Structures are given as structure tokens and as C-alpha cells.
Automatic annotation (TrEMBL):
Keywords: Cell shape, Membrane, Transmembrane, Transmembrane helix. It is found in: Membrane. InterPro entries: Cell_cycle_FtsW-rel_CS (IPR018365), FtsW/RodA (IPR001182). Its main location: membrane. PANTHER family: CELL CYCLE PROTEIN, PEPTIDOGLYCAN GLYCOSYLTRANSFERASE MRDB. It comes from the Bacteria. It is a multi-pass membrane protein. This is Cell wall polymerase. The gene is rodA. The chain crosses the membrane at residues 12-37, 57-77, 84-108, 164-186, 193-209, 215-232, 239-260, 333-354, 366-393, 399-420.
Length: 430
């Protein structure tokens, strides 16, 4: 039985404080992004709440209140349950993703939302923590440095099944997040060669869009020839491997056209075109990013002031309370505001890594790194797409963007870790 006083002392209150600070600042910026002088915040304390549900900031306030209750449940549940029922939760989420794929009605071209009366939930958001639990449970029983290739394939299957179903529902952005798990697996012994190969493959694909294909193939062939000319040992022992790599690169270079024209949808192609050439469609697909950069740049050093952002108040940036919430921070709080936000995220990530490293079980440590990797990926991609360094893929900024599914999923993700950490001294080393 838990002893409340001892248990409360074991909770990492620094992480809780960072979470509360970020959620509070998130609500403040969602309020600014959906502000109306006719419906001030003081209406929350009045008897008449009519019309408040039309505003994102009020709904976000409700999500935050529900999150507090959710935190209580997560911390009360026996920490061993997260390990014991990891596969059950994962299996349930796979079923839910399949159900969503079948019964969800299309919203903005995506079948990824379940509607329960007035509430809309996105199962793809919650699939992150169930996959993290399942992968951590599996990795607790193996050693990536020593185990057979078949077991590594099982881990790959656990990780890839949810994003495959998410892509099938036409929610590519959320599917990309699962690539962040590679960072956690790398910490647990995954070969760095895998990361290098994937990074090289990504570089080849990007260069295929920027450089004439024959030039790219010629440059890569020349590099291989020069390696063999100046190192005959490589020529003797690694010629078959080099030829195989050359053939794979050749297939990737000329396969980009097929993937680009037949797999990607029209709006996805346009987003890539705008990323590579910001002036390609300034009044169409490029509008969001153009207005986003104007909003952030106009904030200057200290910002225009709370509720004084013109880009924000006049809705120049679409989806500003969700995917583009960073614009509000940049315009109204300036460079100092964006730096404060960045420092908060770095502090949270470093704290999560610290918490992960002090775990006495592989399960707890791996799960902690999964949490850090997911939050890091969201932060980098979300900020990157608002300033034109990443394609617009619909990834929210953790704890800041409006949305119940997003807030709840990150709350669950983080506080499961804190629940496990609170009882780390009772864990047995696996």
C-alpha cells in the first residue's frame, strides 16, 4: 500500500513544476490567439458562461482541468501496472486505430478523429505512449547489442505498426513522430550504423529533389571510384557491398519521381515545393509559413505586448492556436519570449533524461528516453515548420498548442514516467 507522504516526496516536483509552467503559458497564448474583447477571461468567474464554448481558450481550460484529474489517476495507479499491461494497452490502441480507420468521418481529408458527442479525440496522439510502453517492455527482455536479428525485427514491427495505420488514415504528420523512437533505441544499444544509413537515405532523397539526377548519380559513382583507386584493400574485400550500395542509391534516386508523383498527395507535394522554394505559392500553400515568419519577425526583441499582436488578432495565420501557436509567442513576446520557451523545453528534456538515467530498470530507462525523444521531435519539427525550416505536417507544440488529445497524450506520456520514477528504489535490475 502506498504511503502518501513518502510517495509525494518521491515525485519529481521539478518536472511537475516545468509541466505546470508550460501548460499555464500555453493557455495564456491560446487565449491570445483566440482573443475577443467581447468575451474576456473574467467571464469564467461570472454566472453566465454562454458562448464561452465557442472559444478555444475556454475549451483548453477545461482540458487542463481534466488533465489535473488524469494526473491524479496516473499517480495513484500502481506503477507496476504500466509494465504488466504494456502489451494490453498497445493491443487496445491498435484496435482503436483500426476502428477509427473504419468509422471516422473525413475531417480536412483525414479519417483520424473519433467523435464522442461534443468531444473529438485523435487516437494517433495516444498511440505514442502505448507504443513507448510496449517497446520498453520488449527491450527490457533483450539486449540490442547481442540479440538476434529476428528480435530486432519484432521491435521494428512494434514501432512501425501504429504509424502504418496512422498513414492509412491520411495523418502523415503524426506518423512521422514514431521515427523519434530510434533515438531511444540508440541509447539502449542499437547500432549507430542504422541511424547513419537512414540519415544518408534522407539526404539522398532530398538531394534528388534539388540536384539533377544524372549529376547526383555521377557524383556518387565518382566518390566510389576514388575510394577504390586510393585504397585497393577496399576494392578487394568490399567490392560486392559497394556495388550493392551503389545499386540501392541508384534505385532511390530514380525512385523519388515515382514516390513523389504517385504516393504523395497533391497538398503534400506542394508543401515540399514551398519548403524548397518559399516563393513557389505565397498566396496558397505558402501562406501559412509566410504569415508565420512575418508574425515572429515583427515581434522584435521584446514583442508587441500581450494581446497586441496584429497578425494574431486579425487571424492572418491559420491554425494559430494549434500548429502555429509559436507565432503568437514570437509576435507578442518577441525574441525573449521564444528564447524562454526554448529554455523551458530544454530544461524539461534534460530533466527527463536525468530521470530516465536514474531508473533501476531497463523498462523505466527506455520509457524515459522514449518520452524525451517524442517531445524533442515535436518541439523541433513544430518550431521548424513555423519558421520555414520544416514542411508543414500538422504536429502540435507540446503543452502549448490547443487541443485536448494533444494535451492529454503528453500529460499521460510524462506522468507515467513520473509514476515509475517515484518507485524507482523498489525496482529490480533486469
Amino acid at each position: 500500500m502506498k504511503q502518501p507522504a513518502r510517495y509525494s516526496r518521491s515525485i519529481d516536483w521539478i518536472t511537475v513544476g516545468l509541466y505546470a509552467c508550460m501548460v499555464g503559458l500555453g493557455l495564456l497564448n491560446v487565449y491570445a490567439a483566440s482573443y475577443s474583447a467581447e468575451v474576456p477571461f473574467s467571464r469564467v468567474f461570472a454566472a453566465d458562461w454562454s458562448g464561452l464554448m465557442d472559444y478555444n481558450w475556454f475549451k483548453q481550460l477545461i482540458w487542463i482541468g481534466a488533465s489535473v484529474l488524469l494526473i491524479g489517476v496516473l499517480l495513484v495507479v500502481d506503477y507496476k501496472a504500466y509494465d504488466t499491461f504494456a502489451y494490453v494497452l498497445y493491443g487496445g490502441m491498435i484496435v482503436l486505430l483500426l476502428v477509427t480507420l473504419v468509422i471516422a468521418r473525413p475531417i480536412a481529408g483525414s479519417r483520424s478523429w473519433l467523435e464522442l458527442g461534443p468531444i473529438r479525440l485523435q487516437p494517433a496522439e495516444f498511440a505514442k505512449f502505448t507504443t513507448a510502453l510496449a517497446a520498453s517492455r520488449f527491450m527490457a527482455g533483450i539486449n540490442l547489442r547481442q540479440q538476434a536479428f529476428q528480435q530486432q525485427l519484432v521491435l521494428a514491427g512494434l514501432t512501425l505498426l501504429p504509424p502504418v495505420l496512422i498513414i492509412a488514415s491520411n495523418e502523415t504528420g503524426q506518423a512521422l513522430v514514431f521515427g523519434a523512437f530510434l533515438l531511444a533505441y540508440f541509447r539502449e544499444g542499437m547500432s549507430p550504423l542504422i541511424l547513419l544509413v537512414l540519415a544518408a537515405a534522407g539526404a539522398v532523397l532530398i538531394l534528388s529533389l534539388l540536384v539533377p539526377k544524372l549529376w547526383l548519380v555521377g557524383i556518387f559513382t565518382l566518390i566510389l571510384v576514388l575510394v577504390f583507386v586510393f585504397n585497393t584493400k577496399v576494392l578487394r574485400h568490399h567490392l560486392p557491398l559497394a556495388i550493392s550500395v551503389w545499386a540501392i542509391v541508384l534505385g532511390m534516386v530514380f525512385g523519388v519521381d515515382f514516390f513523389y508523383n504517385n504516393v504523395l498527395q497533391n497538398h503534400q507535394r506542394k508543401r515540399i515545393e514551398v519548403l524548397l522554394n518559399p516563393s513557389a505559392d505565397p498566396l496558397g500553400v505558402g501562406w501559412n509559413v509566410t504569415q508565420s515568419k512575418i508574425a515572429i519577425g515583427s515581434g522584435g526583441l521584446t514583442g508587441k505586448g500581450f494581446l497586441e499582436g496584429t497578425q494574431t488578432r486579425f487571424d492572418f495565420v491559420p491554425e494559430q492556436s494549434t500548429d502555429f501557436i509559436f507565432c503568437t509567442v514570437g509576435e507578442e513576446w518577441g525574441w525573449l519570449g521564444t528564447m524562454t520557451l526554448t529554455i523551458l523545453f530544454m530544461a524539461l528534456l534534460l530533466r527527463i533524461i536525468y530521470v530516465a538515467e536514474r531508473q533501476k530498470s531497463v523498462f523505466g530507462r527506455t520509457y524515459g528516453y522514449c518520452v524525451a525523444s517524442i517531445i524533442f521531435f515535436h518541439f523541433v519539427v513544430n518550431v521548424g515548420m513555423t519558421i520555414g525550416l520544416a514542411p508543414v505536417v500538422g504536429i502540435p507544440l507540446p503543452f502549448f498548442s490547443y487541443g485536448g488529445s494533444s494535451l492529454w497524450s503528453f500529460t499521460i506520456l510524462l506522468f507515467i514516467l513520473l509514476a515509475i520514477d517515484a518507485y524507482r528504489k523498489q525496482d529490480l535490475v533486469r
